[in-house]
Write a structure and sequence with these properties.
It comes from Cohnella nanjingensis. The chain has helices at about 10-25, 35-40, 45-60, 75-80, 90-115, 115-130, 135-150, 155-165, 165-170, 185-200, 200-225, and strands at about 60-65, 70. The protein is mainly alpha-helical. Mean pLDDT is about 85; it is low at about 1-5 and about 80-85.
């Protein structure tokens, strides 16, 4: 028998909205129904919808424009994720770790070489948010921290590749095994990684990133038993 993971309301709302985008074949720039309509159709409250929208916005799936509505921001990742059925969460996370290592070790090296002041400011902001917040809020900040690193590479092709699989990567920040705290022990490595990028030291950035990945792998194997 498989473990039954606890699913939070905002996660279910997020999945419903992604299913809506897929089933209606919405493209970048297309508008979703108004918030009131979504809440009525799904039978959820404003706080649950707000959390779901924040999570999808952090993952670049949608964009919420104040006073105008909710728009699709990116759909490329659906073409890949729709082909992958994940039955064993532990095995899938470990496989995704291998993909992340391949892409992100390059990203941290390039970020260390090419980061501009505005990139470093963005990373620092989300690094502080990771330490200041807890639970879902911290997970979103963590996701944005890594997105800031990709942005700092200055390589639009690398960014495009990452965006195409970002929905798959987002499972790392969406309470794997139903446990929001699973990767809390990796926070110190975020700090040392950021310091290496600030110091423009690509070798140390690679080393600290690999230490972070090793720590996360231990957590996956421990919690996935």
């Amino acid at each position: 028998m498989k473990k039954i993971n606890k699913v939070r309301m905002h996660e279910m709302v997020s999945e419903e909205l992604k299913d809506y985008i897929r089933s209606n074949d919405l493209k970048k720039g297309d508008k979703l129904p108004p918030a009131e309509t979504i809440m009525r159709n799904l039978g959820v409250g404003r706080s649950s919808l707000r959390e779901a929208l924040r999570y999808l916005e952090a993952g670049d799936v949608i964009e919420v424009v104040n006073g105008k509505g909710i728009y699709v921001k990116e759909t490329a990742q659906y073409h890949m994720s729709a082909k992958i059925q994940i039955d064993d969460e532990r095995a899938a996370l470990l496989q995704l770790m291998e993909v992340r290592k391949a892409l992100e070790v390059l990203a941290v090296e390039l970020a260390a070489l090419r980061s501009k002041p505005e990139n470093l400011e963005e990373m620092e902001y989300y690094l502080i948010e990771i330490g200041r917040t807890r639970g879902h809020e911290s997970s979103i900040a963590d996701m944005k921290f890594h997105q800031a690193i990709y942005k700092a590479t200055g390589n639009p092709i690398l960014q495009s590749i990452v965006e195409s699989v970002w929905e798959l990567f987002s499972v790392f920040w969406n309470a794997p095994f139903g446990k929001q705290e699973i990767f809390e022990e990796s926070y110190p490595f975020h700090q040392t990684l950021y310091a290496a990028i600030v110091d423009k030291d690509p070798a140390r950035a690679r080393q600290e990133f690999n230490r972070m990945m090793d720590n996360m792998e231990v957590s996956i194997r421990k919690f996935g038993l």
